What does this fold into?
Amino acid sequence: MRQILVKNSFGHKRGTRWRGHEVQRIEAFTDAVFAFAITLLAVSLEVPRSFNELLESMKGFVGFGFTFSFLFFIWYQHYDFFRRYGIDDRTIILLNGMFLLAVMFFIFPLKFMSYLIVTMVFNFTDENMHRIMSIRQVPQLLSLYMFGLSLLMLSFTLMYRHALKYRLHLELNDEETDIALRRYCSYLFSVPLLMMGVILYLLLPQNNTALIPLIALPLVIMNRWLKRKKIKVNWLMPHASEISNESNNEIVA
It folds into this structure.
């Protein structure tokens, strides 16, 4: 699918230049891992043998659709990064490995959260909820969810920082530099807020954790703030690094 999107210039915007015109081996490996993650999402969905089982399966498909949509969004962010910068050096390979590890970690709490929400919407009873988990385990579940999300944000933070570090070699124009910088800042600010939520869930008593999900509000405000063109965040720009001619092929495939 990635090859088809590349061929049709899917996602390309005026004023920017794509540097990744071919699907690299690191991207092919990433797609294989995403395919495995999707398999893990759908592995519990069995072919129904009666109409009642079909209805139950469709309830489970709602949760699968939610997790698949989020997984596709993460995949598209990865696709967009490699199209814009086409970097394939050792640092990006390591960071991509960290990204894939975060995906595989995050998929399990994400799937469980989706299953829990679907159960609450379609089949909510005290007995069913106690069978799935106790109320005392909710903070632990949310801490796992936030930790997995923070790992994803951290991997994107480091990848965009690496791209900005070599912006001179990549010949990023002003618009491309601005896009990369704002995305870098968005991911950068998200990590400590998410980790703060993890720490609070683990340390605070259960009856004091109800307001912790509101930590998402500063993330929304921050992202809207970063999208405003008049906001300058150049003070967070990583120092540009020069590379030797022998290393050119390592930076851009």
Notes: Residues 55 and 64 are 14 Å apart (CA to CA). The chain has a mean pLDDT of 79. The radius of gyration is 21 Å.
